[in-house]
Design brief:
The complex is a heterodimer of chains A (669) and B (336). By secondary structure, chain A is an alpha/beta fold. Among the domains of chain A are: 72 residues, no CATH class; 219 residues, P-loop containing nucleotide triphosphate hydrolases (Rossmann fold); 83 residues, no CATH class. The two termini of chain A are 41 Å apart. By secondary structure, chain B is mainly α. Chain B folds into two domains: 74 residues, no CATH class; 205 residues, MetI-like (MetI-like fold). Helix content of chain B is 77%, strand content 0%. Classes of the chains: A alpha/beta (669), B mainly alpha (336). Chains A and B meet through helix 2 and helix 4 of A and helix 10 and helix 11 of B.
């Protein structure tokens, strides 16, 4: 066997914090052969990004690499001098980072950023580098590359910036490309484009790729082999398909099963594993997963298991599966949602809602531009029903949430909530409405006041709306609320920063529940959470829905999550609902070409994908005719006319001239 | 961009007029009478003399008429006549301003040339000796009172070591260089009179250091903080991952981003240096605007106060405009 491109042996990286040393990467070993694709998966804090940065020696103090070897084509990276390191980085090994907004320098032109290291490494002079750079941008699929080269990063969309980042990584034709969460900030159709691009680079240039992600679907579409990390260790390694189908480490099992998948039957609850990763300052003595492991045996708590071969080409760090046995598949109870009585009066009816946001004028005499956020949306929610709204960023779904909760006033249209027209309420009437109509926000870090104790955050709505008489009574209710969302009653004294993301989202839900609302509007409530925590929070929301008869308007970009959670789903594109149907019907028979492409773009291993070209058009112009025609693979001349809303099955409405004309590809649901 | 500048200039004029109006009203309502300050006790006790004096200076006219006359004069480039010096205010300012501008500009250059590199070095080699020096400089600069620092440097470098000349702009026996702009460095350099140039420069050293001390401290501190922030940005990590040398990473990627807050501070600092040199000018016997302002205020010399206000506010507004324009130069996101 030839020398691997990258050979990592027992790598140890330690953060010397004030509280003590944290072994963020603790004895990690893996290797990448020439032209191979390796995925590293794990939740936040598992050490996967620190591993990547250790490989490139990009970490600043207080982080220090304290052990192990990193061999790049046989050369020891960790013992390179600063000069050798500079010559190696960006030339033989390159890195693409997650956030293309902060990763590109805002004050330098694109061309310079793409080519400066070509010149710095002495590969080309400036003139040649310029041609090379423009050529690279074209190859990465950047539209009008000459103009793009002279532009600045803020003039690009997220997807285009990520293409620029990849062009930058590929500029010196490296042997190895390390991509750290390259698609996490992107919409699903754009993510599909970027993943295609990476797969392409691997195929046509033989570039070895190490892809780091928390998303097994993303890794599965590109990587042949996968490394699963937990608490700074590699806990499982093997071919991707084998690990997904038959995980041999309980954490890998949880990862593989906690993600709702489009091609699996809908379960009543998402299988997840309770608990949280161990405190990095106080690691368990034995296996680090022991406290959460449902299959633990006595040996697990005492002895640290080695990363041992459990099957040909597969390794796992587990005592339970050490003898080569598999873990049991998750039990999926039959899915039996009580049917929503169709005769009941809807809880919420919205009709022809419109919201436009005028932008500040660019010049005194200039034309005032308008963002057409919501352009005539009608929907209804029955009592106890969970309606999902899906769409990519900029489709108007968050604005819709704010209209329905009357955080914004609609420009036109009606909203009836519980028999009352609330579209034009103001002041005191609106305040009286609030308790019945609550919202849970996306970012659990930004939506809790960092200077208030949890107890006070939860007591505030109770006191404001006179639901409790005094502080003592409020404290009691707060204890009950914390208990209801699965948190310790005594934690009311703590501040938000003492909680993890998932716990904070539970607190946000408790805050929304405090006033016993009829409808909760949840705007991307789980998109900032790790998959395991996401499963826990979704299960909690389902429990509450059934126990308290709550209705949800659930807004998300993740189709699989919506499928697992909602009774009915509406798909939005450019401020309109383009398709609406009961969840099972929508995912079985998607009929709008956009829905079909959106479903197809969801990265799941072993599936063909329809990759939409281009990006959603600007919301500054109200589209004439069908909003999707510019990107639609089956557009025809009639699409220039406004499409009709057709009911093709009971409750299944499609805004399209030719519903069903784009067929899902083989293998998709 | 030109349109933007034009709009900013028009608004600057309006702002300057508003400032003059506010100062006009305030200085007329403060207790105190220029009559007493100018005529002295004996003459001021004679009502006929007082009335004649008031009529001569237009102080018997209603407030609005006086402001109107001031505005009319302004249109013709006439700032009125100083009550104290009996000379046109514009001439007074033209006489005193060059000394101040020369001092402030040299101080400002010292601030930038020392402060920015020191701040950058302190951020790059954090917690090193350089960083300790930078911290000491900024602490001393910001906290040492000007008058104290002025006396200390005079005592040490003039009185004791005799490395620097004493107060004043030139040696007492030297003549001002020919050329007449009042900027001694400029005039002497143009005339090729290097002896005077050297003399003027030597006299600038101590006062400009004293004047620069406070702003130097701030600029060092701000540069260091901004650089530290930028050095931890993702794009710096990306630049390192590209295999750029540390020099390119620091100077090309981090510094340019870090300069934005430094430019803001620098603009304000220059305006402050121009107008806030009263203490330094007094101690170093520097015949500049600071001393003129002080004596005009003490004498309730309304025309002079108005003139100075206008000049000062115009300076601030122009510097602010320059600062805004340099934002656009530094940061493409600000450009339209």
């Amino acid at each position: 066997m030839s020398t691997p491109v990258l050979d990592v042996r027992e790598l140890v990286t330690v953060f010397h914090t004030d509280a003590g040393p944290v072994r963020a990467v603790d004895g990690v070993s893996f290797s990448v052969a020439k032209g191979e694709t390796l995925g590293i998966v794990g939740e936040s804090g598992s050490g996967k990004s620190v591993t990547a940065q250790s490989l490139m020696r990009l970490l600043d103090p207080p982080a220090r690499i304290e052990g192990g070897q990193v061999l790049f084509e046989g050369r020891d990276v960790l013992s390179m001098s600063q000069r050798e390191l500079t010559a190696w980085r960006g030339a033989s090994a390159a890195m693409v980072f997650q956030d293309s907004l902060t990763g590109l320098n805002p004050v330098l032109r694109i061309l310079r950023q793409v080519t400066e290291h070509v010149v710095a490494h002495g590969r080309m002079d400036k003139r040649a580098a310029r041609r090379h750079g423009i050529d690279l941008l074209r190859r990465m699929g950047v539209a009008s590359p000459e103009r793009a080269a002279a532009s600045f990063p803020h003039q690009f969309s997220g997807g285009m910036r990520q293409r620029v980042m990849i062009a930058m990584g590929m500029a010196n034709d490296p042997t190895l490309l390390i991509a750290d969460e390259p698609t996490t900030a992107l919409d699903v159709t754009i993510q599909a484009q970027i993943l295609d691009l990476l797969a392409n680079l691997n195929e046509s240039f033989g570039t070895a790729i190490v892809l780091i992600s928390h998303d097994l679907g993303v890794i599965g579409t590109i990587c042949k082999r996968i490394v699963v990390m937990y608490a700074g260790e590699v806990v499982e390694e093997g071919p991707t398909a084998a690990v997904l189908d038959d995980p041999r480490h309980p954490y890998a099992w949880a990862l593989a099963n906690a993600v709702p998948r489009l091609d699996a039957p809908v379960a009543d609850r998402l299988p997840g594993i309770e608990g949280m990763p161990p405190d990095p300052l106080d690691m368990p003595k034995g296996c680090r997963f022991t406290p959460r492991c449902p299959w633990r045996i006595s040996r697990c708590g005492d002895e640290r298991p080695p990363l041992a071969e459990v099957a040909p080409g597969r390794k796992a760090r587990c005592w339970v599966t050490a003898d080569g046995r598999s873990l049991p598949p998750p039990s999926i109870p039959a899915h039996a949602k009580p049917p929503i009585p169709s005769t009941a009066e809807p809880l919420l009816v919205a009709q022809d809602l419109v919201k436009h946001f005028p932008l500040p004028k660019k010049s005194f005499f200039g034309h005032r531009e308008v963002v057409h956020a919501v352009n005539g949306v009608s929907l209804h929610i029955m009592p106890g029903e969970r309606l999902g709204i899906v769409g990519e960023s900029g489709c108007g779904k968050s604005t819709l949430a704010r209209l329905v909760t009357r955080l914004h006033a609609p420009d036109a249209g009606h909203i009836r909530f519980d028999g009352q027209d609330i579209a034009t309420l103001s002041g005191e009437e609106l305040r009286l409405l609030r308790p019945r109509l609550q919202m849970v926000f996306q970012d659990p870090y930004a939506s809790l006041n960092p200077r208030m104790r949890i107890g006070d955050i939860l007591a505030e709505p109770l006191l404001v709306h006179g639901r409790v008489k005094n502080a003592a009574e409020a404290r009691e209710r707060v204890g009950g609320l914390l208990d209801m969302v699965g948190l310790n009653k005594a934690w009311g004294e703590r501040f938000p920063h003492e909680f993890s993301g998932g716990q904070r989202q539970r607190i946000s839900i408790a805050r929304a529940l405090a006033l016993e609302p009829a409808l909760i509007v949840a705007d991307e409530p789980v998109s900032a959470l790790d998959v395991n925590v996401q499963a826990q929070v979704l299960n909690l929301m389902l429990d509450l829905c059934e126990r308290m008869g709550l209705s949800y308007l659930f807004i998300a970009h993740d189709l699989a999550v919506v499928r697992a959670f909602c009774d009915r789903v509406a798909v939005m594109y450019l401020g309109r609902i383009v398709e609406e149907a009961p969840a099972a019907e929508l995912f079985a028979h998607p009929s709008h070409p956009y829905t079909v492409s959106l479903l197809s773009a969801v990265p799941e291993p072993g599936r063909q994908r329809i990759v939409l070209s281009g990006e959603p058009p600007s919301t500054l112009r109200l589209p004439q005719g069908c909003a999707f025609q510019a990107r639609c693979p089956v557009a025809r001349p009639i699409c220039a006319e406004p499409p009709p809303l057709t009911e093709i099955a009971p409750g299944h409405r499609v805004l399209c001239h030719a519903p069903g004309s784009l067929k899902p590809l083989q293998g998709s649901p | 961009m030109l349109r933007y500048i034009a709009i900013r200039l028009v608004s600057a004029v309006v702002m300057a007029l508003l400032a003059s109006l506010v100062i006009f009203l305030i200085s007329n309502f403060v207790p105190g009478d220029p009559v007493l300050a100018q005529l002295g006790d004996i003459l001021a006790s004679d009502p006929a003399v007082v009335a004649q004096w008031r009529a001569k200076w237009g102080l018997d006219l209603p407030l609005w008429d006086r402001y109107w006359i001031f505005l009319q004069g302004l249109l013709h480039g006439d700032l009125g006549t100083s009550i104290a010096t009996r000379r046109p205010v514009l001439n007074d300012i033209a006489q005193f301003a060059p000394a101040t501008i020369e001092l402030a500009t040299v101080s400002f250059m010292l601030t930038l040339v020392i402060g920015v590199p020191l701040g950058v070095a302190a951020a790059v080699w954090r917690d090193s000796i350089v960083d300790a020096v930078a911290r000491a400089v900024s602490l001393l600069g910001v906290s040492a009172p000007t008058f104290w620092l002025a006396f200390i440097v005079l005592a040490i470098f003039y009185g004791w070591l005799d490395w620097a000349p004493g107060p004043g702009r030139l040696d007492p026996i030297a003549f001002a260089p020919e050329g007449g702009t009042g900027f001694f460095l400029w005039d002497s350099a143009r005339a090729g009179d290097w002896e005077t140039f050297h003399d003027a420069l030597a006299h600038l050293v101590l006062p400009s250091i004293v004047l620069a001390a406070a702003t130097l401290g701030l600029v060092t501190r701000t540069t260091r903080a901004a650089m530290l922030e930028c050095l931890h940005q993702d794009y710096v990590r990306v630049a390192r991952a590209k295999g750029l040398g540390e020099r390119a990473v620091v100077l090309r990627h981090a510094l340019r981003n870090a300069l934005v807050p430094v430019v803001t501070l620098g603009g304000l600092a220059y305006a402050n240096l121009l107008t806030g040199a009263v203490m330094t000018e007094t101690i170093f016997a520097w015949p500049g605007l600071g001393r003129y302002t002080f004596s005009s205020a003490a004498a309730l010399d309304f025309p002079a106060i108005m003139g100075i206000t206008l000049i000062v506010s115009a300076t601030y507004l122009i510097v602010n405009l320059l600062v805004d324009l340099s934002y656009a130069l530094l940061d493409p996101r600000v450009r339209r």
